[in-house]
Structures are given as structure tokens and as C-alpha cells.
Amino acid sequence: MDIPPLFKQGASARARAGFFSLIAIIMLMVDMRMHTLTMVRQVVGAMLYPLQAVALMPRDAVYQVSGYFRSLTALQKENDVLRRQQTMNAWSLQQERQMAAENTRLRNLLNMQQRIQSKSLVGEILYDARDPFTRKIILDRGSRQGVAPGQPVIDDIGIVGQVTRVFPLTSEVTLLTDKDQAIPVQVLRNGLRSVAYGRGQSGVLDLRFIAANADIQKGDILVTSGIDGVYPAGLPVASVLQVETKSTDAFAHIICLPKAGVDHHKQLLILLLEQNITPHPKPENAAGKDNKLPKRHLRDNASNDTVPARNTAQ
Q1: Could you give the CA distance from residue 137 to residue 116 in angstroms, rounded to a whole number?
Q2: What is the pLDDT averaged over residues 64-78?
Q3: Which of 124, 197, 207, 221 has a beta carbon 3.0–4.6 Å from 188's, enabling a disulfide?
Q4: Quick check: 199 pLDDT over 90?
């Protein structure tokens, strides 16, 4: 019986593999020697390139997404580093500006100290007084450094205030703008003398008891007159800010702006001056009465002493 063609078996698998391997080796040797398959490879590669690109698209997409997230993370880290560096640079720049401004103020205080021919001491403001209704500050200099009540306090421009209380290591300074402070002043332009009074939290001074027709103008500079024996003469105090005169008032209403800038200064200069205030002379009538009283008292004592002597003789 004949075998159906469906069940007929040809060469074995090993024979076929050996045959095709032999053909492949022969083609490789021929191509290596004669380079005959170069054009074939180029044509086949060109035909297969779209298929290769499509097959590689998922891999490329994964690489791009991972690269995007890696670059995003790197940018965030770099931004954080740059932000911290910018903050540090800004802080360093602010510190340098503050130190430069402080050095400038200290140089100005040194120049002021050299202009004033008296002993002085640099003090630093610790804090403002707690009382909201007064204008006082606390300095880091006290009685151990030679500070005494009544000594004037200045900055590189002019008068700031006066030492009112002293402790061993600190001292309290009442500013000129305090409502309980007054300072004798003189108009630098014409020598007109008056007294400037503080107005509390408003930060300005009042020039009181100036006649309405007095020669004083807006912008005039007020300096210390020195007649009180506390402040040296010639130190800048304030400038005239406003002058109001009314026909019904005998005195002018004058507002002055202090020259010194305690609100934006940290170091001040304390003048270590001795308070040599001359006492007021006594009236002549009182002196005459004082001279007569002892004489009368002596006569009374003399008469009282003679009477007992007379009685004793009897």
C-alpha cells in the first residue's frame, strides 16, 4: 500500500539544519571575500528600518519619560540650592550694609567726639523704656563707667537727651521730645534765646513764649545756648518746622523738628561733664533780715543774762 503524500517524511531536521548552515557559511565566506551581499544588506536594512523604529518606540518613550523626571528632580534640587545660596548672599549683603552703616555712624561719633573738647563715652541703646507715655531709652553704660545724672547725650548731629537715672551697668536717658523735658536754645541766625519743650509721642518740640512779632522763620536752626549749665553751647538741637502767628495771640505757635536721629541710631555719645550749676543769689531784703535777726537775738540774750545776775546780787 502506498503512503499518502500527507504522511510522507522528507529529510530529517538535522539534515536540513546542516544544509542551511553550510549555505550560510558559504555565503559568509563569499561575502567576506568578494563583498557581493553589501547591496543586499543595505536594501534589506532600508526596508526593515520603519519596522525597527516602530519596535523601538516603546523603549524610547520609557527613556524619555524617565529622563524628563530625572531632569525635573535635578532642576528642583538645583533651584533649592540656588535659593538657599541666594538667601545666604542676601543675608551677608544685609550684614555688610549694616556694618558699613554702623561704621559710618561710629566714625561720625568719633568726629563729634574730637570736635567737643570734653570727656565722652560711647554707649549702645539696649531697648526703649516700657512706659508708652514717655520718651526714654536705656544705654549699656552706668555709674561704673563714670555716667552721672544730668549728663547730656548726643549723636553725630546734635542733642538727643539727658541722663535722668543711673544704675551700676546701665543708665536711663530721657529724650528731648519727652513731655517733661525742656532745653534752653538759641536761634543760630540772630541769637534769639528761648526754651524748647518736648511734646511726647509726637516727636517734635514746642518753642514757647516767643512774641508774635519775633524774628524767627521756618528753617531756622536752634542750638544750645549753654546758659543752663547742663548742655554745652552751640550743639544743634532742632530746626523750625512751622511758625503760626495770630492777631489775637500774644505769642507765636512754633513747632520744631529735632536734628538728632535717635530712632535710627544704635550708638550714642555721653558727655561726661560735671554739672556746675551756680545757685541763685538771695534777695537783698532777705539778706538784710538775716543780718538783723542775729543782732536782735543777741540783745535779747544779753538782757536775759543781766537780769539773773542782778537778782543774785540782791
Answers
A1: 23
A2: 90
A3: 221
A4: no
